[in-house]
Amino acid sequence: MILIILSIFDFLKGDEGGESLEKYLRKLEELLEEEFDTLIRIATFYADEGDTREALDYLERAYKVASDMNDEELMAFALDSMGDVYLSDRKIKTAMEYFKEALRIYNSVNSPLRKDLREKIKEVEKIREAIDIASLNRLQEEAEAEMAEVDLGAIEPFLDRLVERVESLTMYQSQSYEDSISQIREAYQIARDIGDTATEASLLLLLGAYSLKNEDFSESRKYLKKAEDLFKKTNNDMGLAVAMVLMGVLEFIENNPEGVASAFRGAVEIFQKLDEREMESVTLELLNKLYSF
C-alpha cells in the first residue's frame, strides 16, 4: 500500500506536475460551475411548479456553491433568482430586499447583469405602487358608501386569536370584564414599575383589545399606540404586527381607509417576514369580515 501511495506522489511530482495540478483545479472549478448550474435548473423547475419552499432551498444551495467558489457574480445571480421566487409568491417587500442586495454585488463586480436588474427593480416598484394605489382606491370607494356599524361580537374571535398568539388570555377569560381589566391594569403597573418592558407591552396590547371590544375606542388607541412603541423597542415583531391589526380595526371603525390600508398591509408584511402563515390568514379573514358588514 505504501508503494502505491508513493507511486501516486511520484506521478504528481513529475515534469508536468504543475500542469496536472492546474488541470485538476480547473476540473474542480468546472464541476462546481456544473453543480451551480444544475441547482439553478432544479430550482427553476420547482418555481415553475409553484413549490416555493423547494425552489428557495435549491437556490440557497446554489448560493453556497457560488460562495465556495468565491464567485460574487454567481452569488448575486442566486440572490436575484431568490427575489424572483419571492416575487412570484407575491412577497414583494422580501423580493425587493434580495434584488437590492444582488444589485449591490453586481455593482461591486461591475457585472453586465446590473443593468437588467435595475430595470427589474423599477418595474417591481411600479407594481408595488400600483397595488398600493389600487388597494387605497378600493378602500376609499367603500368608505364613501354608507358603512354598516361594525359588529364587534362577530370579529371578536379574530381579535382573540391574534392577541393570544402574543400573550395568553386564559387567566383573564374566566372572570368578569371588571375583574379581568382590574387585574391586567394592576399587572401592567407592576411591570412598568420594575422595568419589565416586554410584559408591559403585552399587557398594553391586552388593555387595547379589551377597550376595543368594549367600544372604548379612544382608550384602545392610546393603549395600542404605547404597545406598538414598546414592541418596536423590544424587537417583538409578532406583538407589533398584532397591535397594527387592532389599530387597523380602529381605523376602519373611524372611517379612515388610508389608515386601514397602512395598518393591515404593514402587519401582513411582518407576518410574511416571520413566515406566520396562520396569522397572515387570520388577518386577511378579519379584513374581509370587516368589509362584509
Q: Can you lay out the helices and strands and say which pair or pack?
A:
Blueprint: H1 2-12, H2 17-48, H3 52-69, H4 72-88, H5 92-108, H6 113-144, H7 152-164, H8 170-173, H9 177-194, H10 197-213, H11 217-233, H12 237-253, H13 257-273, H14 277-290
Shape: elongated
CATH secondary-structure class of the largest domain: Mainly Alpha
Give the percentage of residues in beta strands: under 5%
Biggest pleated sheet:
none
String of helices and strands: HHHHHHHHHHHHHH
- With helices defined by DSSP (H or I, 4 residues minimum), what is the helix count? 14
Q: What is the helical fraction, as a range of percent?
A: over 70%
Describe the model.
The chain has 293 residues and is mainly alpha-helical. It folds into two domains: 26-141, Serine Threonine Protein Phosphatase 5, Tetratricopeptide repeat; 151-290, Tetratricopeptide repeat domain (Serine Threonine Protein Phosphatase 5, Tetratricopeptide repeat). Helices cover 83% and strands 0% of the residues. It contains 14 helices and no strands. It has helices spanning 2-12, 17-48, 52-69, 72-88, 92-108, 113-144, 152-164, 170-173, 177-194, 197-213, 217-233, 237-253, 257-273, 277-290. The longest helix has 32 residues, at 17-48. The chain is elongated and about 80 Å long.
Give a nutshell description of this structure:
With 293 residues, the chain is mainly alpha-helical. It has 14 helices and no strands. It has two domains: 116 residues, Tetratricopeptide repeat domain (Serine Threonine Protein Phosphatase 5, Tetratricopeptide repeat), CATH 1.25.40.10; 140 residues, Serine Threonine Protein Phosphatase 5, Tetratricopeptide repeat (Alpha Horseshoe).
